[in-house]
Amino acid sequence: MSEDIPLCPPWWPRIVWDLHHWPHPPGGGPGPINYPPAMHDMMAAVSIHSLSYLMLDQEEAGRIRSTAERCLATTAGRLSELHQRRSTT
């Protein structure tokens, strides 16, 4: 492994690390490497929902989960539309 690639410390949440050190291939990559933006949106909502259980203020965490659930449902309901829009641009 190259020395210039940072390694995620074992105590740090991998998803947070990957947000900062995620490889972004110039011009996009092949196949499933570059998911449609809607999939990234949905995975972010799932991650936010899951991580909210770690918060001290569980009342606020419940509101965050509700928002994440609405976001996930809205995006899932628009997948066909978002796919068509992306494939025509």
**Roughly what is the average pLDDT, rounded to an integer?**
78
Q: Briefly note the structural class of the backbone.
A: mainly alpha
Q: State the helix count.
A: 4
Tell me the total number of β-strands. 0
Q: What percent strand?
A: under 5%
The helix/strand series, from N terminus to C terminus, equals HHHH
Dominant shape: flat
Radius of gyration: 16 Å
* Main sheet summary: none
Fraction of residues in H or I helices: 55-70%
Low-confidence stretches: none
User: What separation lies between the terminal Cα atoms?
Assistant: 37 Å
Features:
single chain, 89 residues, mainly alpha, 4 helices, 0% strand
Q: How does this structure look, described?
A:
This protein has 89 residues and is mostly helical. It has a domain at 38-89. Helix content is 58%, strand content 0%. It is built from four helices and no strands. It has helices spanning 14-21, 37-51, 58-77, 79-87. The protein is flat and about 40 Å long. The model has no long low-confidence stretch (mean pLDDT 78).
